Amino acid sequence: MEVLIFLVPMALTLGLLGLVGFLWSLKSGQYDDLDGAAWRAIMDDDAPPDQPAREGDSA
Amino acid sequence: MIETRDLSCFVEHLDGGIARMDLAVEGIHCAACMAKIEADLARVPNLTRARVNLTNRRLALEWKDGSLDPARVIDRLAELGFKAYPFGPQRAEAQEEQEARFLLRCLAVAAFAAMNIMLMSVAVWSGNVSDITPEQRDFFHWLSALIALPAAAYAGQPFFRSAMRAVMARSVNMDVPITLGVLLALGTSVVETLGHAEHAYFDSATMLLAFLLAGRFLDQNMRRRTRAVAGNLAALKAETAVKFVTPEEIREVPVAAIRSGDMVLVRPGERIGVDGLVVEGRSEIDQSLITGETRPLEAGRGTAVYAGTVNISGTLRVRVAAARNTLLDEVTRLLDNAVQARSRYVRLAERAARLYAPLVHTTALATMIGWLVLGATWHDAIITAVAVLIITCPCALGLAIPAVQVATAGALFRSGVLLNTGDAIERLADVDTVVFDKTGTLTLPEAEIVNAADISPEHFALAGRLALTSRHPLAATLARAAGAKLPLEGAVEEAGQGVSAVVEGVEVRLGRPTFCGAEREAAVARAADPEASQIAFAHGDERCVFLVRQNLRRDAVAVIAALRRQGLLVEILSGDRAEAVAPIARDLGIDTWQAQVTPAAKIAHVEALKRAGRKVLMVGDGLNDAPALAAADVSLSPISAVHLSQAAADAVFLGEALAPVGEALRLAPRAKRLMRENLWLAVVYNAIAVPIAIAGLATPLVAAIAMSGSSLLVTANALRARRPWKS
Fold first, then answer.
1. Residue B537 maps to which CATH number?
2. Interface predicted TM-score (ipTM) of this complex, two decimals
3. For testing the chain A interface, which of B28, B34, B107, B135 should be mutated: the one with the most A CBs within 10 Å?
4. Facing residue for A36 by CB, picked from B52, B143, B147
5. What is the pLDDT of residues B608-623, one digit of tens each?
6. Structure confidence by residue, pLDDT tens digits, B60-85
7. Beta pairing partners, B507
8. Which of B31, B56, B89 sits opposite A39 (nearest CB)?
9. CB burial class (10 A; 0-12, 13-18, 19+) of residue B26?
10. In which domain, by residue range, is B508 found?
11. How many domains does chain B fold into?
């Protein structure tokens, strides 16, 4: 059962990665416009390249 | 005079020479609009960024500072068919935004911790009934502690702070038992882990936080959504004023940028955006939004004018002033008194918390003493008492009321009611008396042509086109009613009289009856309807008179009838004359009404009703209603109301119908019933779970099942508030 010493921290690290990923996406404003984001994904025109959203981008 | 548009007070200057501005855009409905706007604005030179937010219907613009006039972008949007208004970020909204983000971060941390601790807890629970070694169990418990302690310290902040505030103010709220439960659960678990025990409650503590944070976040999100809509509406009707920057040069600026002492120009037909004194010019002013009085006021040099009134006939120069000894002063003073005197409503949740917290803590103490008396060790007695606290920790109770509030606020949102305060739902549920203001509340804020059916369509259309060339507010009403698009060419306006033009060799005139030679027709019409304003129209030898009046909201009769069927007492308190109120009261079948009521008298009447034991809902829009709105048990105002009244009201309703008022009064009692049901569900849950805990059988597994089970149950029950009403 010594393998637990590696496996459990590894599982936790993966979970932590998920948390960090979520916090990053929140900070970068990806939840500011959920309705718009749903549609942007399926728009097939050549929209101008968008700069990544910035913090405080909550208009 | 030179006229320019100045938007500089809305522009935000970022680092690196970038300017930024937000626009509230009317007419964005779907993704196609979003793509159209962005694709088109991408071709505007120097505009580095234009991004539409479809959720809150706003457009963020960025450009190199000084290289672009943002007014050009607004003009471009207008060409595309979208009306855009500069949006000044409001402090309250920015704060809510920040708070929502913080709650979401807390929720993420708590949920991460709960899930990962559960991963290890399940291993411990299954190991306890099979072959786990004490070393392995300790390893899992220590890892759990490593996650739970920092996570709870971070994610518990909203509860800890609120509990702290409550304790400082020598009261209890629901956050006090929550905080106590979480801290005790964590503390005992650490002690137990040190003693190599079988059970630890790290999972319970973090799961509790995660569930409660989910409830809080949803609640916050709902409020934020209504605030965004309200913010947009405020921007859409954003008032601008024409200010003299030099005696000769005028500039259109947002009202926010006007200072006391500035001189503004108010042209006929414009809404006055400021409070001040007339310095030059003569005119008539429609004050109905302020006093409820529908008859225009004669204004000349020295007359005090208020923001929200409409200038009818002449051009005025107004010196902006902090009005002294005026109606506004009087109203502000009454409003302050009313707000101070308002007996604070004790929310259902607070009442539950006041009962609940002492009960739970006594039970826990009694459990400990009981076990000691029965001969248990100190250690076992304390652990059992803590288990009682954990299992009674008001997870279900904490969700019971917010969940119903969120679901109901959503249902109200869909029927056009935006809540300013969360507990308005509970107070609405108790209402047994509804007091309406007349002007702008029972009637539409905009005047209408009442005798359109009596006028031939050709005359109506022609009069509408002629009306387009005039700035008089009555003419604007006529043009709108006729749906006129093309102004007549060569029309001449005679100030204060009317407009005339020649169409196919025949002279047409529109204006005062004397201007059109229609005195006889006007006298007949006045005899039939003395309250309506008149516009005469002459086409060659033919004459007709249009009657303009504020009409009842279309569904007012039905809504009032429905309210009376529900057994509510309905009254009208109006600032207008008795002759104007009586016919409206008659049409609506309301027997109790008063006319020419001053703001002070409105408050006095509402207070008298309250003293008589009635629960009063006040519905009003005028400046004169604001104090009464604050004094009533609960209050509603239409979105067309003056700012002061909207701020004093508990909720605001949208649109031209009165139906949202009826809808709010139907949804609220159901919501309150659901809240009660949920509280009872929580009580039943405790009645089952507490004896198990007292008996010392509440292992962490039992606590986890009980907690999530009860939370799901009350949430599911609360969602019933979303179902459409069964009639």
1. 3.40.1110.10
2. 0.75
3. B34
4. B52
5. 999 999 999 999 888 7
6. 888 888 788 888 888 888 888 888 88
7. B502
8. B31
9. middle
10. 448-549
11. 2
